[in-house]
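Private note to self, pasted from the team thread so I don't lose it. Backbone tokens:
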């Protein structure tokens, strides 16, 4: 069964022709495809989702009646009133007497005296050694007056300010 025939001439070129028995069917399908392709788009206009069931409609009605019936307004109002009263709270005035002459060493953290205080002392000692080296460099070389003033300010330890 052949749908076409071909023929080769003496120049070496060949030609193919469609069998006339099938040409009407082929060209008819092509014509129908062209007509369909040129048809404008027509969107679907029918219902796209299913409707609600009777149970769903009943639940929607119950929720609507709850919203209209002001259910839950009493606890909500109680919460609002509580928040307003908390915002208006005024603490009671408290007076204290100083603890002069009272030994509080039993209440002090031993970590502070054992670690923090000794570390601060070591840092102050190291700063003193560094400042002494800076001061000796300042006297040995010609250093501007502003640099000497800065070295003096840096040599002041925290205990001069009453921190220790």
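Design output:
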């Amino acid at each position: 069964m052949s749908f076409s025939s071909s023929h080769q001439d003496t120049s070496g070129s060949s030609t193919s022709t469609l069998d006339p028995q099938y040409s009407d069917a082929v060209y008819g399908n092509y014509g129908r495809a062209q007509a369909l392709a040129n048809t404008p788009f027509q969107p679907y206009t029918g219902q796209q989702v299913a409707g609600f069931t009777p149970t769903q409609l009943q639940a929607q009605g119950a929720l609507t009646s709850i919203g209209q019936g002001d259910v839950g307004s009493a606890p909500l109002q109680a919460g609002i009133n509580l928040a307003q009263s908390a915002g208006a709270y005024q603490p009671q005035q408290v007076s204290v007497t100083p603890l002069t002459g009272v030994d509080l060493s039993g209440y002090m953290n031993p970590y502070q005296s054992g670690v923090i205080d000794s570390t601060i002392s070591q840092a102050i000692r190291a700063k003193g050694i560094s400042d002494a080296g800076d001061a000796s460099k300042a006297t040995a070389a010609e250093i501007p007056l502003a640099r000497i003033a800065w070295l003096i300010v840096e040599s002041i330890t925290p205990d001069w300010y009453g921190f220790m």
